[in-house]
Specification:
The chain is an alpha/beta fold and 308 residues long. The protein is built from nine helices and 17 strands.
Length: 308
Amino acid sequence: MKKIGCFFLHISNEQETNFIGDSFFANNAINSFKKFHPNVDIIYITDSNFQDYLKELNITEYYDQVGIVRIHIIKELMKQKHYDKIIMLGIDTFTCDKLSEFLDNNEDDVICSSNAPYTFMKTEHWAPLIETFEWDGNTYQDVSLINADVTCFNSLKGVEMVYDTSIKYWSSQCEQGGLNYCYINQKELDLKVSIVDFPYIKTKSLYNVRSKGKAFGGYQMHKGKLYNGHYKDPNSIIIGDVYPTSTYNIKDNKLFTSDGKQIKVFHYAEGLGVKTKEEYNETLNEIKTIWFNKETIEFLTNQCNCKF
C-alpha cells in the first residue's frame, strides 16, 4: 500500500501575518480534504510545531520564504519518512470531492494545476506556453501557466528538481517558478510533469483558480462588482454585478461551475496574506456572505465539513 500524505503549511513571517489566529481558512481546508480522504496522512505545520518538524527532519538551514520552505519540508518528508505521494494544498483552499486525478496517477513525477491563463507572468528563465488543441472539430489555444497551491508530488526526484530549479532560477515566482520551469523543460530534465486541469476546454474537473471564471486573477470581485482586472487598477472596468462563484450548482452531491466543470479543489487566490488587515477582513466577510449562493453554502457545510 502506498504511503500518501497531504501537506498544509500555516506559518507566518514579518510580511504575512493576516492568517495568525485564522479560524476559517485552514480549518475548512483541512476538514474538507479529510472528508473525502480519511486514509491520507494530514501533515499540518503551524508556527507552534514548525521548529519541531525542522528538528525531526534535521533541517538546520532553510530559505526564509514560505513557498520554498514547504517544498524543502516535503522533499525531506519523502526522503526520510518514505512517502510515495504528497499532495500540497494551500490553506486558502477547500476540497469538494476525492482527488482521483492525483491519487490514481502514479506515472508523472509532479502533477500540477492551472493558474489564470496569463502570458505576462514570466521570468528571464521561462515563459508560459501558448498551446494549441483540437477539440470537437475545432482548434483552441490555452496558456499552460501553473499555480503552486494545488500540487501533487509523486516522486522524490520530482520534488528535488522543483526545489533545485526554484533556487537556481530564483525570482518573485518562488516555488511556482520552479514548477513552471520543470513543466516547460521536462524533457531536458528527464521528468514527467502534467497539469491536471489543462487545457480548460478538455478538462472535466477543476483543481485551482479556473473555477473562479472571469475572476480567476484575484482582486476582481469587490463590493458586489466584477472587474476585468484588479479593482484598484485605474484601467480596470466593471464588467458585471454577478460573482462567477455565485453561479455554481450542485448535481449528484458534486459542485459544478455554470459551464459544467466539476470543482474538486477551490482556491480563493486573493492574495490574502499580503492584504492590509482591513482588506483581509473585508474580503473574508464577502467570502462568507456573498461569494457563494445558498445551495453552494449548504453543500460545503453538509458535504465538505466546512463552516461558514
